[in-house]
Amino acid sequence: MSTVQLERDALLRRAVQQAASDIVLTAGHPVMLMVAGRLEPMAGSPVIAPVDARRLAESFLTPALHEKFLRDLELDTRFHLPGVANFRVNLFIQRGHWGTVVRIVPLTVPLPGEIGLAPHVVTRLLGVTRGLVLVTGPTGAGKSTTIASLLEQVNQGGQRKHIVTVEDPIEFLFEAKNAVIDQREVGSDTKSYARGLKGALRQAPHVIFVGEMRDLSSMAIALTAAETGNLVISTMATQSASQTVTRIIDSFPPHQQSQIRSQLSLTLRAVVSQVLLPRADGRGRVAAREIMFVNQAVQNLIREDKIHQINNVIATSLREDMVTLDDSLSELVERGAIAFETAYPFFDDPEKRSILQKRYYRVSPVPETAARRG
Q1: Where is the AAA+ ATPase domain (predicted)?
Q2: Strand, coil or helix: what is 273?
Q3: What pTM did the predictor assign?
Q4: Model confidence pLDDT, tens digit, residues 333-360
């Protein structure tokens, strides 16, 4: 093993030990760690020279990937360090220098209860045999972890099922228990999300996981797959159920949108929109989630293009296991999981925010510079 590989492995081990979620390796800066949502320098790390930034980046690459990176100037790949963790690696060029950002992916796939998903919600999410379930949120919101936990629940369930995933790149590595799991990586196992998803339809799946519905083609195929008898789980970089529905519909040409509204109203089963927030005790982060299950009211609103009213349905459907983000934030604040100041910018309802502030804190309002929705 080369010196740079030893340095890389030592760096990765140290980042895992410090509970980092991401590592940023950029020339002109020390090694930076994302810990509990905050970027901070690794203690004792010198400023990275351009030549060292390149050496570290190249240590993650095979000859074939090295050639691909030089051609495309950006690359997503994965790396496994036995006994430590899996890593999702993004390489790029900035101002002529090599840069790398590494996402740490635990070796063990968590179960839903370990990441705050209530059993009755999990039962409903996985109780459907066909349709579309979406987990959404901004970058770094823990979407991959949430979906991995749901797939692991299926993997450990009482019925044998076939799970097919299409990912770019593969993040969590599953150990088959009571399911057959085929994980396909875009670039090495299939040419694109759309082609991988289309192929999955012919592989007798019970559950299909598509890493991201990122373009019209993958959205169209996912909707068709969900419509024709498969449970399709995917992610989108949207921040609420209503925004998710709008994004899907607006991705299609205007002359198709009426048809897509009808199709989506019949195939969409649930949207879980989440954000990760630092814990009050400083020990990692916790997810606040908006949870929407599609009932008759939501179906009608989608079909009739009254998507802006979906939030009202969620707010009045607690008995159907729906939860607004405001209610999720309130619950986390009330049990001391997060500080009110942390939750403040993410509230939608000013009245609920004000009530909570008066009940728990005597602080001046926090400036809404990080408001969740625009």
Answers
A1: 129-297
A2: strand
A3: 0.90
A4: 999 999 999 999 999 888 888 878 877 7
